[in-house]
Amino acid sequence: MEIAPFELADWFRKHYFDTEIVLCVSGVEEFSLGEIRKLFHISQDELDHIMLNDSPSYGASGLRRAIAQKWRNGDSESVLVTHGSSEAMFLIMSTLLRPGDEVIVMTPCYQPLITIPESLGCCVKPWVLQPEQQFIPDVEALKRLLTPSTSMVIVNVPNNPTGATLTVEQQKSLVDAVAKSGAYLLWDTAFTELSYDTPPLADPGLVYDRTITLGTLTKTYGLGGLRVGWCLAAPAILEHCVQLRDYITLNLSPLIEYIAQKVVEDIDLICAIRLEQARFNRNILAQWVEEHKEFVSWRCPQGGVSAFIKFKNMANTSSFCTYLASNDGVFLLPGQCFGHPSYVRLGFGGPTLDLQEGLSRLSRNLKSGRSV
Q1: What are the chain's domains?
Q2: Cα 22 to Cα 11, 164, 171, distances in angstroms
Q3: pTM for this prediction
Q4: Each residue's pLDDT tens digit in the chain (372 positions)?
Q5: Are strands 21-22 and 330-331 parallel, antiparallel or unpaired?
Q6: Cβ neighbours of residue 333 under 8 Å, at least 6 residues apart?
Q7: Closest to 190 in 3D by CA, of 154, 230, 219, 224
């Protein structure tokens, strides 16, 4: 098995820990452990009594139950807790896909969603969100890609990196089309709760039984350091995933699972905090784009906290992003990581002051005419 280098991760290795202002992440501002303990009333005594032993393969029962009650009508047998949604992606695709399988992937996307099936020898057909259509998903285009041979359809909405999403009617049309084909639907919910103008979309797994739903505490909830994700699927699928997991991660830490359980049991609390901040920051970014429209263009994100911004005078933004990181301490992610080299991914979910300072430094470079 050969897999393509993860270009986004490589950029993060080079710049994430060494730049003053990270302006490209796709998640909200992180919480500290102290903040989480205070918000969710986790005492030091509770933490001190946690035994640091192995945890169940499917995840601690309390955490599975909390996830099920929030997102799967209380059915904890359909929950597998994972090391972030990245592990869930790998387990599900490695379990369900075989060489030669036809897989449709919404693109642009988080790279593993397309490179994992490619590495498994699948025939990957991109469902391309078109720049000319402002990256709005075209469900009719997806229907034209579906065939009786389609094994899986992979969808991430709100989309990373564009922030585009589906209407309720479009989602129903999509699910109906996938169900008619009999394919699995892999539904990535990393940004579902970060929706600005419409309510979050419902989990299609509640109406289509061949749906596999992925979730994470990273993007929307500011808890990336916990490395907690989950997979919602039929128990028979999860059983096969666990057998593969036995060879890699085995289980999570009971300490991490306990904190995650306390968070999930009242998760709307932190979602409300970060959604308000993201909405405020999105307005700041929208004003900045309007003031710099001679240099950039975009479609204001409908969800998530990343904007996919086109730089009008650059065919490829990679050199510019390298210069910014090395000389101005600002980390932007070049669009080549998503197959659109004239774009950048700009994350606006972080601290407001960092966003404002980062945009100020970006303005200075654009107005100076720097393009390499």
Answers
A1: 7-32+269-366 (3.90.1150.10), 33-267 (3.40.640.10)
A2: 12, 22, 33
A3: 0.95
A4: 789 999 999 999 999 999 999 999 999 999 999 999 999 999 999 999 999 999 999 999 999 999 999 999 999 999 999 999 999 999 999 999 999 999 999 999 999 999 999 999 999 999 999 999 999 999 999 999 999 999 999 999 999 999 999 999 999 999 999 999 999 999 999 999 999 989 999 999 999 999 999 999 999 999 999 999 999 999 999 999 999 999 999 999 999 999 999 999 999 999 999 999 999 999 999 999 999 999 999 999 999 999 999 999 999 999 999 999 999 999 999 999 999 999 999 999 999 999 999 999 999 999 987 655
A5: parallel
A6: 8, 11, 24, 161, 321, 344, 345, 346
A7: 219
Within 237-352, strands assigned E span 296-297, 306-311, 330-331, 333-334, 343-347
201's tokens? 């979309």
The encoded tokens of residue 112 equal: 């593993």
Matching residue, tokens 């009999």:
182
Neighbours of 247 (CB within 10 A): 7
The per-residue b/e assignment along 255-270, b for 16 or more CB within 10 angstroms, e otherwise, is ebbbbbbbbbbebeeb
Token readout for 16 is: 């994430």
